[in-house]
Amino acid sequence: MNRPVIELIDVRKSFTLPGGEPVPVLDVGHFAVEPGEQVALEGHSGSGKTTLLNVISGIMRPDAGRVMLDGIDLASLPEPGRDRLRAERLGMVFQQFNLLPAFTAAENVLVAMAFASGRPDRRRAEELLESVGLSHRLGHRPSSLSVGEQQRVAVARALANRPRVILADEPTASVDPAHQQQVIDLIQDTCRRHEVGLVVVTHAPEVASQFPRRLRIESFNRAAVIPTGGGA
Amino acid sequence: MSLLGIAWRNIRHRPLTSGLTVFSLALGVALVVATLITGAIVRQAFESGSGLGYNMIVGAKGSPLQLVLNSVYYISRPIENISWELYTEFLPADGRSDARAGRFASSVENAVPICMGDYFRGWRVVGTNAAMFDRLRRGAGEPFRFAAGRNFRDEAFFEGVLGAAVAAETGLGVGDSFAPTHGADDGLEHDPFIVAGVLAATDTPVDRGVFVNMEGFFLQEGHAKPIEDESGEAGPEPAGPVDPSAGPVPLPESRREVTAILVETASLPGLPPELTSMGLRNVINEGRDGQAVLPVAEIRQLLDLFVWPLERLLLLLTVLVVIVSAVGILVSMVGSSLERTRDVAIMRALGARRSHVLLTVLLEGILLAGCGGLAGWLLGHLVVGLIGPWIATNAGVSAGVLSAAPGAELLLVPLLVVLAVAAALLPAVAAYRTDVARWLQGPG
After folding, report:
1. Is the CB of residue B354 less than 8 Å away from at least one CB of chain A?
2. For each of chain B's 444 residues, which pLDDT tens digit applies?
3. Does A47 contact B at CB distance below 8 Å?
4. What pTM was computed for the model?
């Protein structure tokens, strides 16, 4: 059996309040994502989903435990090593798309390539954009793209360095309900075609329901704050 | 896409801010370049004047500096004339009408008279004899060379020689004639002289001179010393023929004066030339007929007292202007730091290392400085080209777009890079410290 692309083992992370008191936000015994697997993580505010994504992507270092990304322990690497691993093994899709406004669609994909070890490949950048239906928008800047087109550029950019898994943080939150399904279909289909794992964090049940594996963060994060009133 | 490409794209994304920053820096650099070039030209011109083949100038008593400026650089006004008798004291027996060596002849290798006061289209006309170019040497002992024609002959009263810059500017060549004017460009027009030769460029003030046979010069109206009769009143001008074909009669020695004498002192046995010139200078200066100055000492004093301090002051001011312009880079980059912080957070999330973003911001500053520096460098040369005629008129040195101060201009490159890095350091460090997690934090 293949090793998991993401595996968290006994990971803990706390923040310190101004008074010096530590507040635990993450306490995960075990969590894993298999290669090519598509997982939806649901969580309410305070469940620790942002911290979980930051720890998985290496932006944050856990206080304890191991964060394995494609078999490499992120927690043991210094920051430049984590940055490099994030550039080469992980794709990121943000809620606000977070395209760079100074760059065209093709250049936004090329910029992501600039931080990996290989040389930026314009041909591949154009192929990726073509694969998400943007062959006619290669030279357009984000300000002249529609919301849906910006999301497509973000997906193409996430695939720039042939990652093993894509982390998508609320990818449908900025899209009107009529287009949410298109976004989910795009991300899922693209990941399947490129044989890339997918972890989508969402608070929308209708989105989560379309994933073969659906988890509530509270189910494996022992530090998650359970909201009073039982809302999700 | 390289980090340089990312930095360049960031600059182009803010065309107005970037353009104004580059423009401001370009103005500062243009000022520095123009100052450097002008200073270098003036310095080079004065320094080159110190190696003209003579080491002493004898002229009327008055300001030594004025005598040097007038005789060597053809700027400022002549002090007064000195007597022909004083000039003949420098001549050997065969050069004098009484066939007796002059008092100073034994201390002198060459003595060349010059007479000034006429102009040709703004250029100084210098009356002299053929020894000026036959016997004097220039720079490191090289003889004067002619780009066309030859030196004028002492017996051809109405021949002349043009400096390289004069020939280039006026378009005159061998065989052409030119008529000097008396005292100023709009003064009385004298008889024409024929161009016998055009000097090769020397990069000295000689390039800007119009040299005519002194004998012809003496015969022009207003150039002869008035004869005083017993009543003390001036007599009439000599009625000397001025038609070259008719064979002019030389002006009598009693009516001659010269403006200055360019003296190359002799090396006496066992004594260095410096001692000869010092002794000769003292003897002349103790008399009442004129003064002797050592041009090298005067030029050195001029450079030490005026040119270099002024150049340093100007340079200091212009460097301050560049520093202010560099602060403009800082202001421009800090002004866009909010937008940059978001971009930096995105790039960091995509895998950019802190060193990547630090370098990108520094490159942005260096690119801005580079564009401003290049534009300023070109603008500086253009400014020198535009003010070249003014410099030539007022300082007596020629300057153009291609004039350069290579060493100092090359120093500008590292200076600009250091300034750019210093200006971009603050925003670069801010980018380096960007908290990615905080900037990318979404709800939940």
Report:
1. yes
2. 788 888 898 888 888 888 988 898 888 888 888 888 887 777 776 665 555 678 899 999 988 988 988 888 888 777 789 999 999 999 998 888 888 888 888 888 899 999 999 999 989 999 999 999 998 887 667 889 999 999 999 999 999 999 998 999 899 999 999 999 988 878 888 899 999 999 998 877 888 899 999 999 999 888 888 776 555 444 445 545 555 555 778 888 888 999 999 998 887 776 666 667 788 888 899 988 899 998 888 888 877 887 788 878 887 887 788 788 778 778 877 777 767 788 888 888 888 888 888 898 889 888 988 898 899 999 999 998 888 777 765 555 667 777 777 777 888 778 888 888 888 888 888 888 888 877 766 544
3. yes
4. 0.67
Q: CATH for A37-62+86-219?
A: 3.40.50.300
- Spatial neighbors of B302 by CB under 8 A, at least 6 apart, are B46, B65, B68
B316 and B371 share one domain: yes
Chain A, nearest residue to B434 by Cα: A59
For A216, phi then psi, to 5°, come to -95, 135
What is the value of ipTM here, to two decimals?
0.87
Taking CA–CA distances from A108, the nearest residue in chain B reads B1
CB contact under 8 Å between A60 and B437, yes or no, is yes
Q: In this complex, which of B348, B351, B436 lies closest to A116 when CB atoms are compared?
A: B351
Positive or negative torsion for Cα B348, B354, B356, B360:
positive
Q: Check whether residue B169 and residue B272 sit in a common domain.
A: yes
Q: Nearest residue of A to residue B440 by CA position?
A: A94
Interatomic CA distance for residues B59 and A173, integer angstroms: 94
Lookup result for tokens 């005159």: B172
Which token pair is B98?
């009484």
Asked if B280 and B333 sit in the same domain, the reply is no
State both tokens at B339.
Answer: 């937008």
